[in-house]
Amino acid sequence: MQFLNKTIAITGASGALGQSLIGVLLEKGATLIACTTSPEAAFQPGVKVIPWQIGKEEELIHGLATADILILNHGVNVYGDRSPAAIQHSYAVNTISPWKLAELFLRQAESNPKLLGKEVWINTSEAEVNPALSPLYELSKRTLGDLITLRRLDAPCPIRKLILGPFKSKLNPYGILSPQLVARVVITLASWGCRDIIVTINPITYLLFPLKELSQSLYFRWFSCEH
Question: Domain 7-223 is classified in which CATH homologous superfamily?
Fold first, then answer.
């Protein structure tokens, strides 16, 4: 997979990983669209910026019509909060919003088969299979991961999962990995054609995630169908 002259849109663009991905992809010759909910965020010259808000995904999708790749990277971590408001907020940001954006983008790809090369990348994190010491983060990310595994069965274009370990960011100030290193490894593995991109220091994830993804995919295939 090559990134030269590709148009790539990234949500969560103002975060540590979003900024790092933008930097690496610009080096590869890609055209970047930064989708951000932070109006004060600054980006490198040449990056197109599209402001948006959670819950208004339909308004954002019009600006993504030219994108070849959509990277869904936005998220929230409420840590130990288990209030009703925290539950609603976690699922709205970590599950419903990326699901809606992915579906809108997939419909675009499906409606025009001539638009070859469309892809969706989704950062579900290794919380899909390992504890993150944040119950609502784990629950909302696992739900997203399960929905994407199900959607992969009938998707009109490739969907890649980013299974990332703890990297240092505002979302996780105690992260161990460098976001710049994570971004470079993600882009390298994507260029090799990997559909499940795992970047973590936890060796258990490299064993558990493929087993979980395979078993769940088979279960969904056997006991569900597209109507």
Answer: NAD(P)-binding Rossmann-like Domain (3.40.50.720)
